[in-house]
Amino acid sequence: MAFKCGRTRSHGGVQVKHINNFIAGEMVPAQSGAYLANIEPATGTAYSEVADSDAADVGTAVNAARAAFPAWSQTTAAVRSRRLLSIAQGIENRLEEFARAESIDTGKPISLARNLDIPRAIQNFRFFATAILHTQSAAHVTDGAALNYTLRHPVGVAGLITPWNLPLYLLSWKIAPALATGNTAIAKPSELTPMTAGLLAEVCQETELPPGVLNIVHGTGAKVGTAITAHPQVACISFTGGTVTGKRVAQSAAPHFKKVSLELGGKNPTIVFKSADLASAVPGAARAAFANQGQVCLCGSRIFVQASIYEEFTERLVASVQKIRIGDPLDESTQHGALVSHAQFEKTMSYVQLAKDEGGELLYGGQPCPTINDRCQNGFFFPPTLITGLPADCRVNQEEIFGPIATLTPFSNEAEVVDAANGTPYGLSASVWTQDLGQAQRVSAGLECGTVWVNCWLTRDLRVPFGGVKASGVGREGGAEALRFFTESKNVCIAMSDSS
Ligand code: TXE
Questions:
Q1: CA 337 / ligand 1 centre spacing (Å)
Q2: What would the pLDDT profile of 321-334 be if each residue is shown by its tens digit?
Q3: Is the CB of residue 194 less than 8 Å from the CB of residue 50?
């Protein structure tokens, strides 16, 4: 029997009225019957409603996850692998529907949803579905006295909390390894972008994922998020979101000694040396700054350019950014869509004003976009914005804006730029553009962050560790790091028999 997450009317090709919870294999409303309006960023109007759940719904979901855990944790890796591969195929079979839903829900261009978000979600499921077929475990022989071997067990019920910028991409990045390693899960998508989680629940039903293995509870952080992080039977928390919220998650989980993974904010430097190939560094810096309207934790929002090429680089960057096509997210030619919410639009506007107050000079953008079209006249559109003339230690260069604002700052030498790049509370990622390999290695070694891209940005291999330091988070996701996070190790030591 094919359940639907509440489809009743068409909107931009997506037919949804209520996005309900997915608990014990069923689509169910919040027990309170309450719903939150789900706003389309491109139009500023509500186009669906999402379950406004609370601790009671989380409790029901935890019970479902606990009930499903014994059987699921004892299935073979091959069975779990097949289940996850079925989910990946189910999403791929509906790729266009998922891409359209993601674009409508987030305001991102449909081409970006189709070419990045949804394919990466499919890849996440396929990557971990196959990774668990090739795991290795350690054994140590203690000089003839004993044999030690290490077992890894799933932790139990995993709490997975995700943000609004890459909804299905980040939700699948947590669900896939959690389930692959034999855990059951409660996932909480952002209340701002619940749509593709609702479609994922449908795919889980259609592919007959055993009830309770994955539960999706929608709602606010204050009611649902806190109930998950504080629930005594939720064994671990994997969180991606803002640094402020990350602190609250850690505080809530600490009394229960839960394992916690925190992927938080960033204020990432893009560093362009005089030897850089500007033909790639200019578009690379523009993409790093403004991909997804600047709403990616990895965005390069501080662009440092060696003084001798500063003028040429700045001119070429402005010319490149001017060509970025701002438009209706559902228009195939759009490269820059709407910000996710009115709050994010206001936050971005406020930082432009702050930049002016701090002495900055606007090079491009900085004003709300002219009306895109009739449909989008009330949408949250803000152009890519470039600002120069700011000191490295001002608020605009220290605080995560998470919108389409990037600053340009000249520098003289490696020591100066590495010091400036490291000079914020964050440490998530960086990109370095240079043709000098020694310089690339020296600067990469000196940067305080979890990922350095050299002559590229956002090139991702799912096997590598992913995460940040300082205020950008705790722990790592990806590859073996994720498999380790969602399991506990146990050493078994067997005395060698002394009978000959
Ligand atoms: O994230 P939040 P938001 C940054 C960015 C953005 C800021 C806030 O600067 O402006 O974070 O964005 C749930 N206990 N990033 O508001 O608040 C919430 O419902 C448990 C960077 O979207 O961190 C949502 O599902 N959960 C980030 C999720 O946490 C709580 C991407 C993220 O919400 C909670 C997005 C609580 N007390 C924003 N409060 C990145 N690193 O990619 C909220 N939540």
A1: 21
A2: 999 999 999 999 99
A3: yes
